[in-house]
Amino acid sequence: MRDFAYHRATTLEQAGPLAARAESAILAGGTTLLDLAKCDVVRPAEVVDITHLPGLADIRADAESLHLGALVRMAAAMRHVAVRAACPAVAQALALSASAQIRNMATLGGNLLQRTRCAYYRDPASFPACNRRTPGSGCAAAGGVTHHHALLGTSEACIATYPGDLAVALVAVGAVIEIGTRWMPAEDFFLLPGETPHREFALEPGEIVTALCIPASAASRRSAYLKLRDRASYEFASVSVAAGLELAADGTIADVRLALGGVATIPWRLHAVEAALTGRHPTPATLREASLLAMQGATPRPDNRHKLDLAPRLVHRALEQLLQGDAA
Amino acid sequence: MSPLDISPQRGDAGDGIGGRPPRIDGLAKIRGEAAYAMDQPVEGLAHAVLVTATIAAGWVRGIDRTAAEAAPGVLLVLTPGNTPPLHAASTWTGEAPPTSEYRPLEPEIRHVGQQIALVVAESLEQATEAATLLRVDYEAAPFLADFTVPDAGEGQDLPPLTIERGDADTALASADIRISAEYGTPREYNVPIEPHGLTARWDGDALTLWEPSQWLDGMARNYAEWFGIGFEQVRLISPYIGGGFGSKALALPHGAIAAQAARMLGRPVKLVLTRPQTFTAFGGRAATRQLLELGADADGHLLAIRHRGWQETSRNGLWVEPLNAATALMYEVPHLSSRQRVVPVNTVTPSAKRAPGENPSAFALECAMDELAYALGQDPLALRLRNEPGRDPHSGKLWSSRRMREAYAAGADSFGWARRNPTPGAMRDGPLRLGWGMAAGTYPVRRSAGEAMVRILADGGVEVASSTSDMGTGAYTILAQTAASVFGLPLARVRVTLGDSTLPRAPVSGGSQMAGLMTGAVDKAARAAREELIGLALNDPRSPLRGVANTLAVAEGRLIAPRGEAPPLPIAELLTAIGRDRVEALRDTLAENGLKPEDRYRAFTTVSTMRAPTDGEYSMHSWCAHFVELAVDEALGSVRLRRIVTAFDAGLLYNPRLAESQIKGGIVMGIGQALLEGGIVDRRHARVLNNNLADYLLPTHADIPPIEVISVGEPDPHASALGGKGVGELGIVGLAAAIANAVFHATGKRVRDLPITLADLC
Ligand SMILES: Cc1cc2nc3c(=O)[nH]c(=O)nc-3n(C[C@H](O)[C@H](O)[C@H](O)COP(=O)(O)OP(=O)(O)OC[C@H]3O[C@@H](n4cnc5c(N)ncnc54)[C@H](O)[C@@H]3O)c2cc1C
């Protein structure tokens, strides 16, 4: 039987070094970690349970920001009035994620660090080649079934999609990740695969995400998350959009925040679309044209080509909804 | 009992046949108290893990067991090289095996996921870990990933399915209106929530198996033959089933190897398949393709159907999914040509999934009828009514009952079909386009003999026993209701014991035949027990009712003299008075099914005596009409159902609440088939990638709209003893077509390959 050591950390100072050891893994809600262990993708020799660390499960809001502790459960965050007020996109992204059971267990920190759903990555016994799992081993997905694979941010080495919803909303609204005493924009937290797809997050061994911070902004307060998928619930996004909008007094777009999920190797901020909209009047034509920029630079495959059209339409829809919300 | 006898209780809330009591096993299940086969505690258990092939074709040259055998707790490692053969068993259809030996672990590999080794250890975790330590040396061979790869070819003809009625080619050529289209369904998997598995224990030469089973006697026979022991030496126990949908009717290779390990070890062994293994240890519905050409005159009378079907099977087994099962009998059509081919590929042998045959057949036919209606400019419902056949166009026999018109009328009325604007895309709700679609479905009445024991107990209660199984469909409840009707007892006084092969026998719970045949057997046994009780009351010297009347009735647990010659006598008091602790009757319905006592074993352990729907004077089938409303987000391509109305004729419903549940369950499964389900094959490896419940999409609650089901059936005295027809599989038949037709109505797009997804509609 494959044994592993279990540590229940009680302080951050204690948890860090334990987690830094080779073959050690941090355990929060466990919904990703246990899943990957069952698939044989991870084989930790030591598990560091951080769920008993004090002070990491708070939700606080003030004039400057919304602070979400890394150990806040997805279910708690999505229901919290402060979250709903400060950033509806985050609350909606969480509510549309996974299942009620998983949301009750899973933490926000763990959620950011969930791994790709690439079927080739998740089945090492059948598909030994995976650069993300085993650097230099190749990519079994290339040339395979790739309708869920990324069109944006891909590399020769890896085309696996980042599957999470929360991170897409966080990236859109310019959230900041707190790692102990270090801070980092959410956008920088997720690493493009490039030639090193096994390096997925900008974390050093033993570093623990302690909180997510969403700076207060009008665009965040007026934000939404749309998630498109075949099944009405309990499915990862085929395409998703997080959108935030602030209109100036003259009706022009003062600030707009957009990010895509389900189509890229990392949560994909739409800077080009944002730039095309900022300062403009949100006319239907402007919205449509700007949305068309969403998939700029995409590398489609035969079985995911339809997302080239879907993603811009979903961006357009999200913007329309935010504008309608204004009229109402 | 004739159907008329019981009509007074039909539809009321009583406990007898036709009443609507909830499932008597429901509370236990909700509370987690119902112990399923694999929940049974067995002392001294060892745990097994199945190891499966990672290549699609070739040979296992050798398996290095050294590391696995040395791992902690490991008791036994079975591989092709060290596993003695079993005896080959005859088939479920009753044919002798082609070879004398059966090797549950074969060195020749024919599909990914084929079992190649079994590791048994003290704990599940130890076995799981040791299983990863086996080193398998393969010699790979070329393979066919599925029937779309060019090398798979056109496959072999299936002559028994050929139909040539009239001259379809000529009639098509002269038809005013013609449509031609090709329809496809992917591999669909049964994936019951309770995975397959078993616990096997040997006591000398006697084998006890705790294993979920839709057919205890058939599986017990199979195990007996494999191990060269007598049928009576096998005891199979399956108190409940956590879903099977056709996949738990047969003894399977993993059962053979687990039972063999138990025998070799001299210890009970438990094996439960992992979720991915439930995609390869047994087959689901075969992938299918159908080419349909329909020809009609300008008024919409069907003239001809030309039907060509292809389906997958495996390289080493033939599974036939009869693709013209509905095509041949739904409509009045003088000319029909139908052929089917079967294409062997490197997959596990496909098998039965809810309504094998009728389901894909109706999908293609009912979509084609919709296409024809549009080609004609007619309402799809009107087109169907125009082509309603007065008798079975295939066999020429009269229908025992076909209340299809009533189903169309009731369904259309409740749905509001008359308000439909036929133009595609014309009905809207804000940015959403609404689709209203309809389709019909059918499922045959299959009949087999049953056997049951009914025992009147000293306290006046009644026991019913049979080896038939309750798959969650409600067998416990309707069999209790059957006895309750005969004795006029409340349900609480009837105890039903099922799911044990040592009980009176029963054939397969498949083909939607169980309810009809088992209510018949229980009714017969209950009446026999009642007759004996009345005989004792009238004739036993110690009976208080001796000589008071010529006959007695039984109601509310009491014996009643017809004209009040004596006060009603509780059954319990009679038994006390005459010194009996029970009165029981064991009855079978072999004779009713044209069988002799010597056919008994064959009748219950094979399907060789199962009667076709046209065996006899009539052609017998259940019928349904589905009406579906959905909304398509045009820009985004997402489909969401809004409501479904299904009207059906399944004859008398033994318990309308449970029958409605079965129809709804079929509809829910049909929603999955239409919009979500399908095995995704990586053709480079012949591997199904979505072999788990996160990636193989089944409908969630959020996918299911309000469903209304309406019974328009009347008792059909030809179909079964009490007048019911099959219910379990009916609801799924035609549902996917109704959805596909609604999608067309919403969008103007014909999607002919299931499932219909975002990628098709955006
Ligand atoms: C069937 C299924 C469906 C799902 N559907 C969705 C969906 O639709 N949308 C979606 O967004 N997600 C979905 N998920 C993913 C789910 O949301 C994540 O599994 C969950 O959020 C992970 O949180 P956790 O606390 O359980 O993480 P864990 O499993 O405990 O940890 C996950 C990873 O993060 C690391 N980790 C955890 N906390 C920290 C920390 N504070 N600092 C540093 N490292 C840490 C762990 O070492 C591990 O590598 C689904 C999951 C499943 C199994």
Automatic annotation (TrEMBL), chain A:
Species annotation: Teichococcus aerophilus
Alphabetic keyword roster: FAD, Flavoprotein
TM region(s), chain numbering: none
Identification of the protein by name: Xanthine dehydrogenase family protein subunit M
InterPro entries tied to this protein: CO_DH_flav_C, CO_DH_flav_C_dom_sf, Diverse_Substr_Oxidored, FAD-bd_PCMH, FAD-bd_PCMH-like_sf, FAD-bd_PCMH_sub1, FAD-bd_PCMH_sub2, Mopterin_DH_FAD-bd
Record-linked SMART domains: CO_deh_flav_C (SM01092)
Keyword Iron-sulfur assigned: no
Gene3D superfamilies in the cross-refs: 3.30.465.10, CO dehydrogenase flavoprotein, C-terminal domain (3.30.390.50), Uridine Diphospho-n-acetylenolpyruvylglucosamine Reductase, domain 2 (3.30.43.10)
Pfam families assigned to the protein according to its UniProt record, in alphabetical order: CO_deh_flav_C, FAD_binding_5
Location of the FAD-binding PCMH-type domain: 1-219
SUPFAM superfamilies xrefs: CO dehydrogenase flavoprotein C-terminal domain-like, FAD-binding/transporter-associated domain-like
Superkingdom in the source lineage: Bacteria
Keyword flag Flavoprotein: yes
PANTHER family: XANTHINE DEHYDROGENASE FAD-BINDING SUBUNIT XDHB-RELATED, XANTHINE DEHYDROGENASE SUBUNIT C-RELATED
Organism phylogeny: Bacteria, Pseudomonadati, Pseudomonadota, Alphaproteobacteria, Acetobacterales
Automatic annotation (TrEMBL), chain B:
Sequence ranges assigned to domain Aldehyde oxidase/xanthine dehydrogenase a/b hammerhead in this UniProt record: 31-142
Name of the molecule in the record: Xanthine dehydrogenase family protein molybdopterin-binding subunit
InterPro entries tied to this protein: Ald_Oxase/Xan_DH_a/b (IPR000674), Ald_Oxase/Xan_DH_a/b_sf (IPR036856), Ald_Oxase/xanthine_DH-like (IPR016208), AldOxase/xan_DH_MoCoBD1 (IPR008274), AldOxase/xan_DH_MoCoBD2 (IPR046867), AldOxase/xan_DH_Mopterin-bd_sf (IPR037165)
PANTHER family in the record: DEHYDROGENASE, XANTHINE DEHYDROGENASE
UniProt-listed SMART domains: Ald_Xan_dh_C
A Pfam cross-reference name: MoCoBD_1
Region named Disordered: 1-24
Organism of this sequence: Teichococcus aerophilus
